[in-house]
Here is the input.
Amino acid sequence: MATAGAGAPAITASSSSFVSYSPFSLRAWRTSHRQPAGRASVNVRCVSSPPAADTSYKTKVPRNANMAKLQAGYLFPERAHALSTIDGYSGYGAEQGEKKLRSAIAATYYPDLGIEDADIFVSDGAKCDISRLQVLFGSNVSIAVQDPSYPAYVDSSVIMGQTGLYQQDVQKYGNIEYMRCTPENGFFPDLSTVARTDVIFFCSPNNPTGAAASRDQLTKLVKFAKDNGSIIVYDSAYAMYISDDSPKSIFEIPGAKEVAIETASFSKYAGFTGVRLGWTVVPKELLFSDGHPVAKDFNRIVCTSFNGASNIAQAGGLACLSPEGLKAMRDVVGFYKENTEIIVDTFTSLGFNVYGAKNAPYVWVHFPGRNSWDVFAEILEKANVVTTPGSGFGPGGEGFVRVSAFGHRDNIIEAARRLKQLYK
Amino acid sequence: MATAGAGAPAITASSSSFVSYSPFSLRAWRTSHRQPAGRASVNVRCVSSPPAADTSYKTKVPRNANMAKLQAGYLFPERAHALSTIDGYSGYGAEQGEKKLRSAIAATYYPDLGIEDADIFVSDGAKCDISRLQVLFGSNVSIAVQDPSYPAYVDSSVIMGQTGLYQQDVQKYGNIEYMRCTPENGFFPDLSTVARTDVIFFCSPNNPTGAAASRDQLTKLVKFAKDNGSIIVYDSAYAMYISDDSPKSIFEIPGAKEVAIETASFSKYAGFTGVRLGWTVVPKELLFSDGHPVAKDFNRIVCTSFNGASNIAQAGGLACLSPEGLKAMRDVVGFYKENTEIIVDTFTSLGFNVYGAKNAPYVWVHFPGRNSWDVFAEILEKANVVTTPGSGFGPGGEGFVRVSAFGHRDNIIEAARRLKQLYK
Here is the structure.
């Protein structure tokens, strides 16, 4: 950081400001802005993680060779701290997020879990971070996904060239491990039948099934990853919807920091869907097979391909984590959980089996033997209600539709009335 | 669009809202949400470009084979229009940007140039779009950059695996064509010595040299691209700083729509550096070698890896394009141009040769025979003023430092005083 040194006030000209006053360390600046040739290529500021000792646990995931090609750090990671104090305007912020917000996220969502501010990368949303993580991993890794799952994992994998062609007969891409999640297995995959992959995308509470994995299940998942040297990308975007004692973070599981990344979002708690604010936790303990910290490479991706979440959105996020903000978010979650109950009661009263809902804003409704798209079309055409066809989330979603609780109460009630009319 | 049909009001449940009223076309929905297997895989909504006729000009840039693997469109591109009318809150917006903002950008910056609203993709900034464009192109393309140039082009190329290793002796990555830009060639490369690449990154007015290419030079560049079947990624982030009659958009050059993408930003006009708002123009006329429209694939990238710029930032961007907003932006640009003059006068009075500045907020100061990092350190240590070492932008920047005009007037004046003291 430009603030690391305690020198005389300096007039700085970063990429965004010619002159502003701030304490400045030439040594830190020179080290982090080291030109590629002829000088050491260590970017001290990148992530403050100690070099991995030989005894540290290492995953078996190879570091992306392209990341290793990069010389030193990105030219402009340093920002004069004074930018955020003169006239109150921050200009370009730290690509990793405002320090206060990173601290508030760590304190609010990861108390006593050993997650530090520096492990948290504020982003413009989980979806964007999933693609940045794929760029981080590169094209030579293999992935596993829950089946069904949020489509961004599979699609971003295809775009990065990690997969084979789409196989029409099984409705799957080659070289992706689809971990089937069904009512029969409690929507948790039978890991004894799952092949080893480099990366495991795991969303809990799950979109679309609404199922939250239990502590016991997540303990198995972490052990599975550790045994295989895999990295879990844990999507906890709906964690605040958990009502029972299921973990709200993968890092509640001992040892998870050595095998997991967690990505999260303000979208579903604070009505921030269009505001674009989320975060990703990359613990310093997570290492590629060569011992290189994953966080160092992710930081380089974030500095190169991103310029931080909008400062306005970050200010809003900080407000969300105040006592008043947290209460407001809990109220929002509570409201949607009431919607969820209305939807559950509606389908249950009509004789359908429904899943999810308890720990998530999604109701996963079973139409055994029917084509998801046909059910979707039937509900749309006859009741003018839009659901989402389950098979859009993978072949494991066939025969289901996902019903979302995000909506105005009057509309939920009206939809319930029409559904009761349709399926009475 | 969900609004394409004129049916009865429907209750919709997109991913973000269970119920809301909007006219809805089942046919459009089903076509764009087509499940992968057994049905046509055309995503009609993707980009409204007609199929390329055989007579259309095609670049020689191969389509990223990974993009061709993707089945249909992303599951959630459709948004009920009503989301933006009920209670005034938009929720998830169109990934491509709010319609009004796209229209305003087209009308303000591309009048009479044949650029339509649908060609414009609103983003969270040019830097982010550069990386998304690299993901679009994939790892099997070659690139050219101005030398010196903004580091994001080269770094993102390395990350995507388009390059060879870094070559310490020449301070260049393998498989990147560095187009040398010097005072001797007027900071426009000698194209007769430039090898053909798939993609040409070209920034004008340039960061860091401050040079804006003339109409004649850009005409040569477009012809060069067309002769080679290359795609130009034209970075016009500083276009509003142009004072002379240099083109402000590559699309002022006839034929450019068949060979160029343009990426732009609000950051440097509206003090939006931390707000994160920009846009990229991908004309429907731009085709891969197989005739596939580049815009269709870019739209898929944007839908999969991005969820739109923050709606707050977009509202701000729209305000910037009002008559009052445009005047305010011109005032901001004028203020920084005055700063630029102070910096130019300072160095000129001290006997230095300076370049750029006329059409850009950057002054490119020559220290012949000296190492950029040594000059940077000297100015920092002795005057407490931070510049940016030219060689950080590529080997062609050696012997220069970039001085930025972005700053408060008092600080610019104080920096000028100190520089005069240092180099008197």
Q: What stands out?
A: The domain at 99-321 of chain B is CATH 3.40.640.10 (Aspartate Aminotransferase; domain 2).
